[in-house]
From TrEMBL:
It comes from Drosophila kikkawai (Fruit fly). Residues 55-77 have a biased composition (Basic and acidic residues). Residues 1-38, 53-77 are annotated as: Disordered. GO terms for biological process: regulation of translation. This is Zinc finger protein 706.
Amino acid sequence: MARGHQKIQSQAKTAEKQAKMKKQQGHSANDQKKAAQKALVHVCAVCKSQMPDPKTYKQHFENKHPKNDMPEELKDV
């Protein structure tokens, strides 16, 4: 069992390791995927592709589906 200065060093090292582990848990790949999925709110009516905003959706529709009629929600964007 450690005593004195060695004990203090061991406690500091353990606290640092615990803080590092806690920080890594907050940034897991699964959490990032969930946050990204929440940002994709507009879904293309033709191909079901997801976009974050109406401007991107309109550009997508003009480039990928030029023969199809523009949806009503995109005509004023």
